[in-house]
Amino acid sequence: QDTSLVYAIGAQGTKYLGVDGERLPGVYHAKDLVYHYNRLPPFSERPFPMGRRVAIVGVGNVMVDIANYCAHFTDCEEIIAIARRGPFEKAYDDREFEDVEDAFDHALYREEIERVRPRLVAAGQNPDDLLTALGAKPEPSPRARARLRFRFLASPRRVVAEEGRVVGLEVEENRLERKGDRIVAVGTGLTPVIPADTVVFAVGDRVDEDAGLPYKDG
C-alpha cells in the first residue's frame, strides 16, 4: 500500500520585495509582527518597537490587523496604509475593517480620493461612489489613539533612513491601466517620500526555504 507524507506547514517564510532598506531596524515583515503581538515564540520574545508614524505597505486583511494593533495597543499617532493600485482594488474585507473604523480619518480619505480622482476617472472608475459609501460609515472616535489614512497608487521603492533610523518611505506614483478584465498599476516616474519612522510590509508570505522541500513560485 502506498503512503504519502503531507507537509501542511503554511507559508512560514518571509517575502521580500527587493526594496532598498527593507531590512533596516524599524522595518518589519507583517508575519513577524503579527506573531509578536499574538505571543508566538520566538517572535514574542523579540522587541518590535513601533514609532509614532507607521507606514503599512498593503491593503489586505493583514494590514487591517496591524492597523488595529497600532491604533489600540501602541503609542502610534498616525497609520498610513499604502496601496499599489486604487481604492476600488482594496483587498480587505469590510467586516474586518470594522475593527479600525474608530481610527479611520474620513477627512483625509476624502482628500486622498480628490488627489487621485483624475487617475481613477481615466481608468473608468467613479470616485463619487466611494464618497457616497463613506457617508454611510460611522465617524471616527475622538478617543482613538491614532488616525488611519490611505495613500493610493503608490509602489514602495526605498526605505529612507538617516543615521540608521527610518525617516520615510520613497514611493513611485502610479496610474491605472485596463488590460482586459484587469486593472494594473503603471509607474509614472514620480517618487515622493512619505514620512514614517516605522515601515511594515504586509505583502504576503512565501514557503520557508529551511524546510528543505522543492517548491515553485514561492
Please write out the topology.
Elements: E1 13-14, E2 27-29, H1 30-37, E3 53-57, H2 61-73, E4 78-82, H3 94-97, H4 106-122, H5 127-135, E5 147-151, E6 154-162, E7 165-179, E8 182-187, E9 193-195, E10 198-201, E11 205-206
Parallel strand pairs: 2-10, 3-4, 3-10, 4-5
Antiparallel strand pairs: 1-11, 6-7, 7-8, 7-9
Helix pairs in contact: 1-2, 4-5
Please give the order of strands in the largest beta sheet. Answer: 2-10-3-4-5
Order of helices and strands: EEHEHEHHHEEEEEEE
Give helix % range. Answer: 10-25%
What is the general shape? Answer: globular
How would a textbook summarize the main sheet?
A: 5 strands, parallel
Number of helices: 5
Query: Kindly, what is the distance between the CA atoms of the first and last residues, rounded to a whole number of angstroms?
Result: 32 Å
3D architecture notes:
23% of the residues lie in helices and 27% in strands. With 218 residues, it is α/β, with parallel strands linked by helices. It has a 5-stranded parallel sheet with strand order 2-10-3-4-5. Strands 6, 7, 8 and 9 form a 4-stranded antiparallel sheet that branches. Strand 7 and strand 8 form a beta hairpin. Helix 1 (30-37) crosses helix 2 and helix 4 packs antiparallel against helix 5 (127-135). It is globular, with a radius of gyration of 19 Å. The two termini are 32 Å apart.
Provide a compact summary of the structure:
The chain is α/β, with parallel strands linked by helices.
List descriptors.
single chain; 218 residues; alpha/beta; five-stranded parallel sheet; 23% helix; globular
